[in-house]
Amino acid sequence: MRLIKILILTIAIMTISGCNKYLDVVPDNVATLEYAFRMRSTAERYLATCYSYLPELGDKYRHPALYGGDEFWLSSDKTTWDNWNIALGLQNTNSPLMDYWNGANRANDLWEGISQCNIFLENIDIVPDMDGYEKRQWAAEAKFLKAFYHFWLLRCYGPVPIARENFPISASGEEVRVFRRPVDEVIDYIIVLIEEAEQDLPLELLDDNLDYGRLTLPIALGWKAKILTYAASPLFNGNIDYANFTNKDGELLFNQEYIADKWKKAVDALEEAIIAAHTLGYALYEFEPTSQIRVVNDSTKQKLTTRGIVTDQWNQEILWAHSSSTTKSLQEWIAPKALAASQTAHSTPNGSTAVSMKMVEKFYSDNGVPIDEDLSWDYNNRYTLREATASDRYYIKEGQLTAVINFDREPRFYGSLGFDRGIWFGQGNYDEEDSYWLQLKRGEFGGKTQAGWHAVTGYYAKKLVNVTNNNTTNSSYSAIEYPWPLLRLGDLYLLYAEALNELDGPSDEVYEYLDKIRVRAGLEGVVASWKNHSRLPNKPTTKEGLREIIHRERTIEMAFEGERFWDLRRWKTAPNELNQSIRGWDVDQEITENFYRIRVLFEQTFGLRDYFWPLREQDLIVNKNLVQNPGW
């Protein structure tokens, strides 16, 4: 396996030559560890190398969770996308898609990243022109990155080896043929690393302009809490589906006993992380009008809040974002090709990323409850047509026909989704009373013109497109390149509500943190919404009912941010959600009544094997101590 090669070669004198970002600072024929750590400036660049292995989630090709699940869908000419091929069920053992184990098929080699962190930790103390506190801080950053890479591998592969340190060059072949370790052992190791890092990470950055993306204590606390929530979740906590998953010596790799105390650890860690974030001024984001965007209508403000949570770079809700993973290309593939007839000749954006009808139906009604539970919402006729009136004008173009499913939905629906006849505020037009609106039927300026360059379901992910982007010319799309968020406060609030409910059931504190998210979204609190509008008014009062509500709230609030893919797995609800058809409107049609017909684009399947990536067959041949994931 490639891990063996990496662990041995990274200790050799020429080890650093494998990293292009580091080669820039090393003269020809002098690529030695002594040179790398001879002064502060070269050591800092080596630390940047450790950061460079972070998954590039702002890249449309490299985010497994955006295109690998059931939120986004592409046209049939995009089958070269490794991440989308996961959604298509094409994962394999010969050349695994998004292969973080070997650094192949659009994935970074995380074992190599861990090895680079180990080298840094082994050598940072020899740098002569650094103070001790700074050495400790940089070591803490490397420790956290090492922990994060182990966690990413755990999330992808389940039980993985632990690379505590690099093997010496003299290590025997048998010594480097590592075993996979039980998931609890891996998680414990990750938490120990993070807690070591916590001791020396700064509370905040000294220079935001120079250091954006560098690690701080709130980031470490937040991710520790998130990892402990994963550890407490059904996938990793008493998972009897893996009762026979063992190493070759019979060692069990998944614990078989549910441990409630894991939720207590998650609750305590989340509380600590949230308190730290609050103390340092982090808060839920809300859009504030600017000199460019002088909106006054609450409906428009609410929509821009939903979009700005992600796209307003480095806002007060974002604890950590990947500063080297920006999103211009991703936005070009998400934004509609044309918002006006004058833009039809533009080459960018191309609007090739669609949102599944399943996700469209996940959002609440304007009463803050699921549309199939709402006492007053016309669920059975949701695919029929209705004409928009003046009261709909901030969401749907007045006088236009669209489907009932697009009416009377919560504000996040309109902030997250673009749809036929729906308002698309921004992109150079900031007139609330005369905004752009989408015309997506075939033959219209936003409709299908070829195999790609259109949303195959008739829905766009407006949430990920910055409101100030603009089609400046027919070949230039001006886009705000916001860094991809890796952790935000709203995520921690929802995890905290989930962990509290799993530990002790419904409580005022669970409702409080759910309602912080709901109030920001323009909705009533969870208890009042269900009591007044749901056909299941007591649902929030039971642990099981509130669990379902929390899962739905996370699905909506974190939509298109790469969380649902992993949440469905850790909750073990993926077989229910991912054994369904991918559906959308019939976008090949010109006539309104024909366009608004549901068509099935794909029948997704999900089984036990799909919880984790497979190991490459070649790795199993090289290292006889490795075992394959079940089902592969």
TrEMBL record:
Domain SusD-like N-terminal, chain residue ranges per copy: 21-205
Keyword Signal assigned: yes
Transmembrane segments annotated in the record for this chain: none
The keyword Signal is assigned to this record: yes
Keywords, sorted A to Z: Cell outer membrane, Membrane, Signal
Pfam family of the protein (one): SusD-like_3
Subcellular compartments: Cell outer membrane
InterPro entries assigned: SusD-like_N (IPR033985), SusD_RagB_dom (IPR012944), TPR-like_helical_dom_sf (IPR011990)
Principal subcellular localization: membrane
Domain RagB/SusD residue range list: 317-632
Signal sequence annotation: none
Family: Belongs to the SusD family.
Name the record gives this protein: RagB/SusD family nutrient uptake outer membrane protein
